[in-house]
Amino acid sequence: MNETQHPLLSVDVSDGSHHRFYSLDEIGNWLSHERAELSWFFEGAPQAGGAISDLRNNYQNNFNHLDQTLSKWRNEPESTQRMQQFYNAFTSAYSSSTTVRSDHPFARIAADISKNAGPAAAAAAFGTLLGIGCTLNFETAKGIIAAVLKQSGIDPQSPNIVSKAIEDLSSSAAADRVRTNAEWDGIAQRAENLLRTTDESFKNQTEKAENDTAEAIGRLQDSVAESIQSIHTTEATYKEQMKLRAPVEYWQEKGRRHADALQKSRRNLIWFAAVGSAALVGSLYVLTTIALDASSKSAADTVIFLKFAAIGAVVTTILFWAGRVLLRIYMSDRHLLSDAEERVAMVMTYLALTNDGKVEASDRALVLAPLFRTASDGIVKDDGPDASLTGVVAKILDLKPGR
């Protein structure tokens, strides 16, 4: 019966088991029971050797530590600190996966083996189930085989153990073979799909690469052809420019000279218009004054007026003739300047059309004929006297009587 209604100590260990103790004596009895139930392990582990022997020492140390902690708690039963120390020691002892209680399935299997095969075989079986190695000998081999068989639900003492093992092995091999065949079929199918996909992708990429290459080659050929055509056009333009360079420079220079002459002619014309007008008015005024003075001193005033009127007419004619000559010179310079500029513009336009390839060989004569035509001086010869010796002689002969 429980000494108190509530447990003195409640412990939950890492494997999920729950322990409730109602007195210190109950705790001591539980530890003694565990040690006694695992006596086959303490006895057989040194014979099994290896890591099993180390595990046995670990178990022994845990039990000794729990006994010492419980003894201190017995001396001070009301001490909460002593209870906590025992609690910590208990949970620490069973925190490892290799430290199990006597009612654990692995411990029960090993205990059954101990009854038939001895403690050494039981210790080896216990280590095998926990994944801990041992020294291999006849005794430990029996324990290992028995542990594997019992874990698989086979009684080592059964007469059908061999046939059952063969049957299990055959079933396992058949299942493995079926699984392996299925895996290989899946791998083969995936490989076939991968090869088909890769082949289609390769064909598509190859076709795309061929199309891109052909397109790039076509663009390159077109670019090369355009570049060669541009070079030929530039070369032809350069040759034409070199051929027409001298005429262009000639007409540009001539245009500059005509521009200077035009400015000079304009200045002379303006100066003559101002000075000539003043001179004409002054001359007519002087002639009129002289004629009036002479008529007051002579009775033949009509003859005197006619003489001075004739002189005024001659002076007026000379001034107007000189002004018209200056105007003709001005207009001649202007026409010649326009002609020179038109020829230069014509050459530049011709060169531009040649550079664009828009001028045929048959059109060259139509452009060059006006360029090299003879330029006139722009002066109308009939508006002034002939300054040549032949012209002067012809005028004298025409003025002789009888002509």
From TrEMBL:
This is DUF6161 domain-containing protein. Residues 200-384 form the DUF6161 domain. It comes from Bradyrhizobium huanghuaihaiense. The chain crosses the membrane at residues 269-292, 304-327. InterPro entries: DUF6161. Keywords: Membrane, Transmembrane, Transmembrane helix. The lineage of its organism: Bacteria, Pseudomonadati, Pseudomonadota, Alphaproteobacteria, Hyphomicrobiales.
